[in-house]
Amino acid sequence: MSEDEDGGGGSAKSRGGGGAPPPFSDQVLEIVLENVLQFLSSRRDRNAASLVCRSWYRAEAQTRRELFIGNCYAVSPRRATERFRRIRAVVLKGKPRFADFGLVPINWGAHFHPWVSAMAAAYPWLEKLCLKRMSLTDGDLSLLAHSFPNFKELSLICCEGFSTAGLAVIAEKCRHLRVLDLIEDYLEDDEDEMVDWISRFPETTTCLESLGFDCVGSAVNFEALEALVTRSPALRRLRVNHHVSVDQLHRLMARAPQLTHLGTGSFGSAAAAIPQGGNNVVDLMSTFAGSKSLVCLSGFRDVAPQYLPAIHPVCANLTSLNFSYAEVSAEELIPVIRHCHNLQIFWVLDTVRDEGLQAVAATCKDLRELRVFPLDPTEDSEGSVSDVGLIAISEGCRKLRSILYFCQQMTNMAVVTMSKNCQDLVVFRLCIMGRRRPDHVTGEPMDEGFGAIVMNCKKLRRLAVSGLLTDKAFAYIGKYGKLVRTLSVAFAGNTDLALTYVLEGCTKLQKLEIRDSPFGDSALLAGLHHYYNMRFLWMSSCKLSVRGCMEVAQRLPHLVVEVIRERDEDDDHEAVEKLYMYRSLAGPRNDAPPFVEIL
Amino acid sequence: MEGGGSYESGDLDNLKATELRLGLPGTDEPEKLPSMLPRSSKRAILEANESQSKRNPSEIKSLEEDQKPAAKAQIVGWPPIRSYRKNSYQAMKMEAETTGMYVKVSMDGAPYLRKIDLKVYEGYKELREALEDMFKCFSLGEISRMDESNVHEYAITYEDKDGDWMLVGDVPWEMFLSSCKRMRIMKGSEAKGLGSIP
């Protein structure tokens, strides 16, 4: 019943403890089975095992240690905790991904509270928690800190609602904390009410292995941070925020030469002045040279280019480099990147231009993941990277598996070239920022390019399309995208046929998010056979009506169909501005805000 | 339509009048709302600084057209960049845009000086090209000629904080930015002794 990719657990009825206990021989068998099943780690395998028979179902439920809930509204906390009694680690995901781009109103939901309350009672031995796009309060964090004496790892990704006060309680009460990773969260922090949470870690030696707070907007007490790093001998991953200057970073690194992952904070001086006689750069460089274990660098929030050479000593060891907040030119990138022979993951700003990408292609033969972000993320900005950069990457980095590429102009030829050169592609996300923009050389739609991607990249699981696209592109996707699980569509397609092709063709489709595309009710109804196999469908600013959505809701009772209305749309009650629907065993949620109507 | 004819004089005051921002006309302080940054103001200043003889009707028109899309409302959530990242980038851009670094540039033989914003350029190459553009109307010769002989007619020099005249290109760009007080494009014969230009 936990959300899983192939919907295997969806049909299992709840058997939590109802009925007479099984005969003795069966109990022995189950114990034997448990001893075997405890080694099963893949949740897909576990879901399959649980369907064999009741005995296996029970044994599996008793031995599952990690609970994955892909949609917090797909199952109720009580149902999950009643079936799985011995969970040590939970992954919980909430809002739909388009919430990251402001398409989901605040207070929509994904509250952590009911989950932490249920888990506090059911899982006293909980050790690990990973939340993504959840809404949680300081009170929830406090409950967490007080309920799980053995708590070890907390990862919060794209969450909101809590503040440094909540972090302080975690630091103080979770004595076995090994991991505290805050990734792109939005902290509610009033300037006057910030709490010195770093000082609240216990004074004794800690078992911290990973501490990441680069998204925390407020400065931390540096002396306390330095002291904390000093008394954390197990620390391997440290990611500081932009308030930490390069001089401070230098001191931290001296305390922790064993680091493997480093988020460098600002990597510039507060004064933005040149260093005294360049000595600082030399000192910094020797400190980096001493950090022989560094494999991952990020941060560089206010990078002063004269400090960049300091990282040269570690470049050859780097497998991951994140320059996506560093305004670095090609000239500044090249001396760094040409040392990075082992780089597998590279995130960068488009300020490096096609020239910079060519340098990447020339050196980083092992590259698996590339993300190129736009410094000026508007439709009419001057594009800094183009089809030229994409082709270069495709020719140099043949092992590429994942790419996210923002640009202003692209050609079919470049995309086709990539499809042929990079056969290992699993994730292809191309964002041509100008809406409905065609191939800038031929003036044609981008159909052929994306068609080639789904045709040639046989391992493709995730696809995001953009540019001018006709129904033809979607015909290709439906025909060839047999492994595609996640599809993102914006400002594309001509008619309902496009969506119909996808819903009928992409048999493994799990997550479909569409905005501003001319798809209506008849296309929506074309997917009735498949919606129970999906985690969710999001459609906004399309051509849906209440009638169509209502029909889906009636025909599929286990689907929760949410219509989100932000304004008082007195002009058109029939039109559905935002649709979010997902399979669920829990039925309509009871925490829906007024602007959400559940059909 | 905003932007009409206001670039003829190349005057920064007129540029300001066409700047898109919130607030009543006549208020000086542009509101620093992240979602309403004056679009490509950097580029507009750069173009306004260019030599007057380059100004022609088709160019004015293209500047006007550049202004037009800014009036189009920004679509919510497009391009799809997480707000956390978007806000960080906007903070970075605002920091860069608010502090201009204007220095005077003189060229031996030219009748008057120019002023440029060093922050606008990414590095020495762009700076050289911009200076070339700016001064070529005076038909004094090429500033940076790519010769095998490495002999150039002119040398680009700058006066640093200590009052010394240095050859442009020796120190890292950032260091140059913080120490350059003004620039002089001097005749090659005078530049002897300053070393060869990279």
TrEMBL record, chain B:
User: What Gene3D superfamilies does its record include?
Assistant: Phosphatidylinositol 3-kinase Catalytic Subunit, Chain A, domain 1
**Keywords, comma-separated and alphabetical:** Auxin signaling pathway, Nucleus, Repressor, Transcription, Transcription regulation
Domain PB1 spans what residues?
100-188
- Tell me where it resides: Nucleus
Q: Which GO terms describe its cellular component?
A: nucleus
Please list where the region (Disordered) is annotated. 1-71
> Which family does the record claim for this protein?
Belongs to the Aux/IAA family.
| Function statement | Aux/IAA proteins are short-lived transcriptional factors that function as repressors of early auxin response genes at low auxin concentrations.
**Protein's name according to its UniProt entry:** Auxin-responsive protein
Q: What is the lineage of its organism?
A: Eukaryota, Viridiplantae, Streptophyta, Embryophyta, Tracheophyta
